[in-house]
Amino acid sequence: MAIDGVNGPVNTGRRRFLTATTAVVGAVGAGIAAVPFIKSWNPSARAKLAGAPVTADISGLQEGQRLILEWRGQPIWIVKRSQAVLQALPTLNDKLRDPKSENVEQQPDYIRQANPELRSLKPEISVLVGLCTHLGCSPEMVAKIGPAPFDPEWKGGYFCPCHKSKFDMAGRVYQGVPAPTNLVVPPHHFADDTTIVVGVDPQGAA
Predict the structure, then answer these.
(1) Whole-number Å distance between alpha carbons of 185 and 171
(2) Which of 132, 133, 107 is closest to 121 using CA atoms?
(3) Is the dihedral of CA 3, 9, 13, 18 positive or negative?
(4) 53 contacts: CB under 8 Å, gap ≥ 6
(5) Which of 58, 114, 133, 180 has the greatest CB tally within 10 Å of its CB?
(6) Which residues contact 137 (CB under 8 A, 6 or more apart)?
(7) Tens of pLDDT along 155-205?
């Protein structure tokens, strides 16, 4: 039996128990304190709303399919367009309000420079904010080329059933509809052939 200080004998079994208990409580406390720190490594909800980038793997995206992400609280549409759709886009210019993407507020400059009709960095991959520029509704994607109830000469695109606005598969708005401008193309770049980053311009972009 050991002597502890001037207060007489100490129960060593009780001491071991108290020491072990203190160590366990300390470890648990340290773990709890670490959780907010670890979480801080990832973008918070506020950071995401402020524009934290969103990364997506598009390796499995097939022609005519759409991947929907969220960035800044908005739906982002990533669509793989078919060759038939790409060939049809230039034929629609006479029906569109802004076929050459001259409204600079609707897409970054590097998108216009790449191809104002396709409005994309890669011909087959379209990236758009999925909100109608009329009242912010979410249009329906009707990618198939062929007669549609709202357009007998439909070449694929987006139709907003709320107020009948129409956009082609590059997000360019048709003439004579309530929507005043093309759908917005958000800032984005390709980290590699199958990875897209929404919210960050390509390196070196003005």
Answers:
(1) 8
(2) 107
(3) negative
(4) 71, 197, 198, 199, 200
(5) 133
(6) 131, 160, 162, 163
(7) 999 999 999 999 999 999 999 999 999 999 999 999 999 999 999 999 877
DSSP string, the chain: --B-TTS-B--HHHHHHHHHHHHHHHHHHHHHHHHHHHHTTSPPHHHHHHT--EEEE-TTPPTT-EEEEEETTEEEEEEE--HHHHHHGGGGGGGBSSTT---GGGS-HHHHHH-TTT-SSBTTEEEEE-S-TTT---PEEE-S-S-BTTBTT--SEEEETTTTEEEETT-PBBTTSS--SPPPPPPEEEEETTEEEETSPPTT--
pTM of the model: 0.75
CA-based torsion, 15, 21, 25, 28: positive or negative: positive
